[in-house]
């Protein structure tokens, strides 16, 4: 395929001239601005010109810092038009964390939104140029459009930093081809149309907001409404008022929406597609949406797979438990790792016996930026090791059992925290639960359950253990139960288990071993 020939809104090297997009149709909007596809193309070209004046060219890293806004996507597309690599940065990070990422990726320019002016100025090293899109002494959007060379499918498009739940964050490289094939996979599962109006509530520094919402919608010529921060009441209002036809979320967001006082009176009639991932949704939450006539489609993926691997089909969701992540995407191969080391890995089919999931396909990242050893360690031949344990039924519908790294061994038996947590949250008083393992002199490891109760609810440790003991083997029942006001989470809503492990180790390090 030939490279992008215009100012460019295409994915990878798909030419703009082939896109079936109406120039006067709304492309992106936020609370302050609305742009048509023609307007977005013009702004993209002008911002690309501004970046080119700063010396940005093919392969250079352009970082972005700010909340979801029209400027975010303008900057992404402008950098891609030059063949540069976008580095989205979590706007909630501290200055030291931002500096680490800028140094790690070797960014030459940091573009920021109006909400991040102070942090952008204070965070970077002296050799990083800090600019705004429309303000400041050298705004990017002024001046003439640049002559752009575009990019090929194998060229890096974006560096997405992993959540950092273990060790320092590392950047997964996603190519234009990775983004393109993920978009095709997503559209094979979700029927987005040019008439759809999607709501982007997930942050655009995360793969869900970028790859599962924005790019598929724009690929089809639909519109994307950008939300700077999640607020359940405001999101419900926009769903009804816009009206919104599709959005993607994490389970925590879905729970907050259906528990909001405005939920019973919110008109959800326009919603056709709601997809989610990151962890399994609680059955009561899935039922709340289904009772309102909205079918949730759970997916499974990760940053390194751009991110989609599995997704429930709309037609099959009603016949399967809401904890199932569905079936593999169309252009995705899956297998499990056999025991015995890398030389005996896959392709063993995913079956009833849990095993570490292996993935290969054109959407899988080529590796981690500047980390050849970690890239090599994550692969066996063409297969990428996800670190997640999955099992599947005879019909291929899969269930995520747990992370390999979250598993702990008590008395010689494997304990998957997700299995324990799934039982705990069936109690009406429990809003959420996270289980971690800590060392134990007798059993090797034992469990600590951190439990977040629903507002106004009461529950004691003995009652929770009674529930768990009735449905789980004794070795799976956590020895310790701690009640917390809130579980620690990262910016994408995932529980920070590393924080809980540190807390548990400190709290119970000197405890005598119980019989």
From TrEMBL:
The organism encoding this protein is: Pseudonocardia parietis
The UniProt entry's sequence similarity note says: Belongs to the ATP-dependent AMP-binding enzyme family.
A GO term, aspect molecular function? ligase activity
What InterPro entries is this protein classified in?
AMP-bd_C, AMP-bd_C_sf, AMP-binding_CS, AMP-dep_synth/lig_dom, ANL_N_sf
Q: Which residues form the AMP-binding enzyme C-terminal domain?
A: 419-494
AMP-dependent synthetase/ligase domain segment(s):
18-369
* PANTHER family named among the record's database cross-references: ACYL-COA SYNTHETASE, MEDIUM-CHAIN ACYL-COA LIGASE ACSF2, MITOCHONDRIAL
Q: Which positions carry the signal peptide feature in this UniProt record?
A: none
Entry keywords, A to Z? Ligase
What is the protein's name according to its record?
Fatty-acyl-CoA synthase
Recorded E.C. number(s)? 6.2.1.-
């Amino acid at each position: 395929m030939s490279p992008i020939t215009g100012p460019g809104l295409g994915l990878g090297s798909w030419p703009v001239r082939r896109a079936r997009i109406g120039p006067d149709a709304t492309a992106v909007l936020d609370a302050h601005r609305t742009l048509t596809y023609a307007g977005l193309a013009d702004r993209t070209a002008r911002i690309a010109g501004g970046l080119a004046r700063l010396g940005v060219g093919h392969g250079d890293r352009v970082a972005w810092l700010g909340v979801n806004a029209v400027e975010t996507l303008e900057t992404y597309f402008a950098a891609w038009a030059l063949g540069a690599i976008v580095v989205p940065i979590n706007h909630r990070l501290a200055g030291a964390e931002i500096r680490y990422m800028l140094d790690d990726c070797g960014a030459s320019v940091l573009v920021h939104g109006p909400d991040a002016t102070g942090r952008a100025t204070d965070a970077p090293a002296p050799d990083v140029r800090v600019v705004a899109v429309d303000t400041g002494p050298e705004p990017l959007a002024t001046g003439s459009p640049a002559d752009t060379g575009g990019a090929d499918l194998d060229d890096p498009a974006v560096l997405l930093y992993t959540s950092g739940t273990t060790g320092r964050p590392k950047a997964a490289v996603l190519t234009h081809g990775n983004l393109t094939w993920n978009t095709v996979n997503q559209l094979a599962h979700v029927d987005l149309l040019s008439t759809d109006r999607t709501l982007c509530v997930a942050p655009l520094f995360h793969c869900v907001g970028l790859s599962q919402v924005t790019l598929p919608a724009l690929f089809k010529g639909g519109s994307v409404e950008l939300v700077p921060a999640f607020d359940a009441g405001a999101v419900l209002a926009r769903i009804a008022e816009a009206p919104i036809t599709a959005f993607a979320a994490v389970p925590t967001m879905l729970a907050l929406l259906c528990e909001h006082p405005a939920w019973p009176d919110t008109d959800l009639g326009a919603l056709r597609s709601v997809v989610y991932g990151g962890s399994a949704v609680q059955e009561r939450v899935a039922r709340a949406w289904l009772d309102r006539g909205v079918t949730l489609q759970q997916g499974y993926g990760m940053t390194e797979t751009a991110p989609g691997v599995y997704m429930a089909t709309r037609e099959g969701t009603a016949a399967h438990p809401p904890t199932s992540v569905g079936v593999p995407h169309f252009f995705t191969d899956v297998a499990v790792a056999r025991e015995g080391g890398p030389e005996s890995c896959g392709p063993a089919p995913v079956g009833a016996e849990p095993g570490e999931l292996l993935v290969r396909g054109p959407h899988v990242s080529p590796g981690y930026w500047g980390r050849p050893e970690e890239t090599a360690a994550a692969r066996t031949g063409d297969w990428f090791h996800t670190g997640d344990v999955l099992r599947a039924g005879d019909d291929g519908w899969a269930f995520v059992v747990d992370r390999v790294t979250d598993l702990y061994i008590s008395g010689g038996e494997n304990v998957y925290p997700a299995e324990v947590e799934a039982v705990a949250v069936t109690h009406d008083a429990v809003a959420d639960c996270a289980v971690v393992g800590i060392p134990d002199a007798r059993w090797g490891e034992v469990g600590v359950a951190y439990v977040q109760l629903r507002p106004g609810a009461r529950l004691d440790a003995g009652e929770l253990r009674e529930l768990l003991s009735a449905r789980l083997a004794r070795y799976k029942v956590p020895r310790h139960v701690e009640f917390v006001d809130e579980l620690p989470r990262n910016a994408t809503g995932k529980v920070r288990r590393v924080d809980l492990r540190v807390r548990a180790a400190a709290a119970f390090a000197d405890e005598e071993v119980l019989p």
